Amino acid sequence: MTVLATARRAVETGPVCDACLGRLVADRSFGLTNAERGRSLRVAAALEDDVPVAEYEPDGECWVCEDESDRYEEWAERAAHALAEYEFDTYQTGTKVPPLLEENDRLLREDVGLDPDAGEPLKAELNREVGKRLGADTDAEVDFERPDVLVILDLATDELSVQVNSAFVYGRYRKLERDIPQTKWPCNDCGGTGRKRGAACDGCGGSGYRYDESVEQLTAPPVREAMDGEEAVFHGAGREDVDALMLESGRPFVLEVKEPRTRDVDPTALEREVNEFAEGKVEVEGLRLATHEMVERVKELDATKTYRMDVTFEEPVDAESFAAALEALDGATIHQDTPQRVTHRRADVTRTREVYDIDGELSDDHTATVEVHGEGGLYVKELVSSDDGRTEPSLAGLFGVPAEVTALDVLDVTGEDEPFARPEFFRGTDDA
């Protein structure tokens, strides 16, 4: 069937607007909007039939789209107004088309003898035409994968909704004081409510938290405030024990700011503000604006870790035996049952982990400092203590002398396949 025959049959079904007429054959020509395409078909058919164009003009509301095709400018203006308080570089539009209009689309194709999938559906045209006007109004780029903002048009209710996707800041943190968890730790006694039996919880003093501060609470507020977001969520590349320090190179993390109104922040200034806010308890460095992919890369990082431990022995240890024990552990494969201290929250399984390098020095015959570089997931406290034989081999097991870690510092967290230098995971780079 020729395009003109299709056009003639379409206008015979009732009032059909230029856009709906053009959408029927959108897959047969290029370079025109559907409205321009439909108008051209109308004029060409009239000329070929030697009749006034008015005979092919609709004499009322389009029965297919109910004149929604005339509202592109209106929808775009409403969307721009709804987004006025947000800063964004990328966007996408979506449309909820009522079942009746979708049925009209199908019936029109059926009436003119076309395949149901011929041309272009109303939803696709609305998304494109409103979208390109919105982009022009806001000087933003369309992004079909992960836009900063998503605008949804609901034709049935004549309402418009906005989804603002999160912004992300990547960096590394150092924890310089002990007894600070990585994230908020709800009180076990009251379940985080701050209340127990109608009164303030004795366990947390009514705060709802087991610890007064966390790395999250010491870093997230300035970032959330700078981006004027609703909430900031902390994502870390693993976590150190509450009583451990995180030193030297620091641990990778991402702060996710939900519903940010501002995205174009200065990472250098932000780094300074975070460090001032944390008052020396936590330090951050290398802050950069990141993409959402960085969250999974941080959380799934297969990292090696370097620890420094203060170790105490119950009985005297001589330097020769100490050196021999370290040599036995250097490069060893360690078999570890889940430590007793975490079996309440982790499955009791046996894991194997590698010790890449270990070194140490006796301070006296009862104390030592030990540094160990190990595979991610290696329980280093149990590598020292043996955890009642649940870790083999161990320092205590090799000595036959009970040993305990009295202080633990994390010195380095480095990915086996470090992704953090790749520009595609950061915003504001040439390759992002």
Secondary-structure topology with pairs:
Elements: H1 3-12, H2 18-23, H3 34-49, H4 72-82, E1 90-96, H5 99-112, H6 122-138, E2 141-142, E3 149-154, E4 159-164, E5 167-175, E6 195-196, E7 199-200, H7 215-227, E8 231-236, E9 244-258, H8 267-278, E10 282-290, H9 293-299, E11 303-313, H10 319-329, E12 333-337, E13 350-364, E14 367-374, H11 380-385, E15 391-392, H12 395-399, E16 403-415
Parallel strand pairs: 1-2, 1-3, 9-16
Antiparallel strand pairs: 3-4, 5-9, 5-10, 6-7, 8-9, 11-14, 11-16, 12-13, 12-15, 13-14
Structure report:
- The chain is an alpha+beta fold and 432 residues long.
- The chain has three domains: 3-164, THUMP fold, CATH 3.30.2300; 167-300 and 419-425, Alpha-Beta Plaits (2-Layer Sandwich); 303-415, Alpha-Beta Plaits (2-Layer Sandwich), CATH 3.30.70.3190.
- It has helices at residues 3-12, 18-23, 34-49, 72-82, 99-112, 122-138, 215-227, 267-278, 293-299, 319-329, 380-385, 395-399; strands spanning 90-96, 141-142, 149-154, 159-164, 167-175, 195-196, 199-200, 231-236, 244-258, 282-290, 303-313, 333-337, 350-364, 367-374, 391-392, 403-415.
- α7 (215-227) packs across α8 (267-278).
